[in-house]
Every structure is written in C-alpha cells, then in structure tokens.
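Glycosyl transferase, pasting as requested.
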Amino acid sequence: MRIGILAPVTWRTPPRRYGPWEQVASHLAEGLVARGHQVTLFATGDSVTRAQLEWVVPRPLGESPPDDPDLDQFLHMVHAFRQAGRFDLIHNHLNWQPLLFAELVATPVVTTLHGAAMLEPASRRAFLRFPHRPCVAISQAERDAVPGLDYVATVPNGIELERFTFRDRPGEYLLFLARMHPAKGPDLAIEVARRTGRRLVMAAHIPPDQEAYFEQEIRPLIDGEQIRFVGEAGPAARDRLMGGALALLHLVRQPEPFGLTLAEAQACGTPVIGFDRGSVREVVAHGETGFVVETLERVCSAVEQAVRLSRAACRQRVERFYTVDRMVEGYLAAYERVLSGG
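Structure tokens follow.
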C-alpha cells in the first residue's frame, strides 16, 4: 500500500524525550516500511525515519516556538493533503483539524484519536461533526467514552521491546514518570511516598503552562532525598528508571486513554499501581502485573504487595499485547477494512 502518515509537529518523530503521539507515529511508519509498504511520513524536518520524509516545519514547535504556531500546523496539514492523490490512504495522528481537509479529497483518511476526543470537550465536539470519518481508538475505554464515531478498530499502542531491559529483581524506590500536570497526580505520588516511607523518583516533562504549578505546588515538596526530581527522561533514562523501580505510580485524576508508560514499565518487569481511570484496568492485569485501585489507602497497601508480583508476568503481558508488531498488524487490518468499504 501507499500510505501517508500525518504526524504532529510539536516534537520530532521519534521524540527525543516527551512526545507520545510522535512515538506511535514513528513506530507505525517504521513497522509499515519493514513490511514492504510505501510510506511517506509528514513530520518535522529533523525527524528520523526509513520512510520518505516530507516536511515544511523544520524544527519541532515545542523546541523552537514560532510567533504563530497555528499557521505552521496548518501549513503542515496543507502540505500533506496537497499530495493526497499519491496515497491509497492517509493516517492522521494530528487530532481533528485534518478532518477539515479530508472533506476535500477522495483519498480515505483514518484518524487515531490518541485521547483527544476523550479528554478535550472541544475536540470531542469537533470529532462528532464528522461521524462518517473512520477512526481508531487506542483502548476500549476511549471508544466507550466517545460513542457516535465510526470506529473501524481498537488498536492499543505498541512499544519496541528491545528498548526496554527486563530486570528480574525489584528495586526499592517508587517512580512517577509522566507529564507534569495536576491531572497526572504528582502530588498524590508524593503523598504515597510519605505514607509508605518509600523513596520516590520523579521524572517529568514540564509544559510551559505548568511551570507555575510545578514551582508553587510540587517543588516545595521535593527534598532531594526521599523525594527526588530528575527532570525529563529520554529513552535510555526511561529504561533505567523503570527497570530499577519497585513500582510505577500512575495516580491519574482523569480517564487514561492508554498510557504508554504503563506498557513500558511492565516491559522492564516493573508492576504498575494505578487508579481505576479509563484504560488502566485494560493495560494492567490487577493482582498479576500491578494493582488497579480506587483510593490512596489501597495504593499504599499495594506498594507493600508489589514486591510479591512476578516481574516475568509483567514482561509477558507486554509481549502478548503491546508490541509494535501487534500494533502494526492492527492498523493494517483497519486499513484493509476502510479500503474494502467494510
């Protein structure tokens, strides 16, 4: 097939550090190329890919913010849709805005929701204006949260297992690894560390609009000993931090569309302790590869039980459900369904 992958341009594809949508777009493009498909990746000019790279935005908007980022975003979309006739299908990883252009071309456009419609009321309203456009959910929870769309598949995100080192011995510290935002529960992770007496390592990307929150609400709680902040973690650091942890804490306050870190931690053999929000109970097998609970009291109890869980079972769950190969297979089936009119 001739496939156009429309990636975001906030970060490089693949991202140097943070950038979950870009990471999925990268894995998919590389996986499709490996299977012999003709893939064109629309991404930033510094992106790294075996696909044909097309770009109009030279550097990630998140690293080199322009005066008018909306203009750059739309120029990026226009560049892709001008070439729509080259492709059998365009796969959109850039929220709802490309659907405006999809109305003007004959080439089928498939959109992965990536949590936007689930978490953002404005995005949800926009997607619901295009109920005839084929969509892919990344979890059943996402699909259930936004009924009324034309779902052609549910395809969980996949990771490259070889990038995550399995460690059969549990560490002693708890890990918070997420975007710094109240919805991600960094304050709750700190409270769990205090209640259990465990050390907590925090690795987080801090968006510009959350710098004040971090400085006012979180930094005063960091003592550098029991509570330690190590900044944003790139691929090698993520592997090391996850593999060395007793458990990953995922105490989100909002529904989780998927949660790449949940799969990544389990790939290292590290169980996940998370609140029962959205897809957490799908990705984590309660009582086997972690604990899916409802209160901080249950989280604290789960911390003491985490050492008894099989780290091999954590790795095996990812091998079974959350690899790049499984993801690519799921998307190819979705493409075939769209192209056949099914």
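Note for the archive: The first helix runs from residue 20 to 34.
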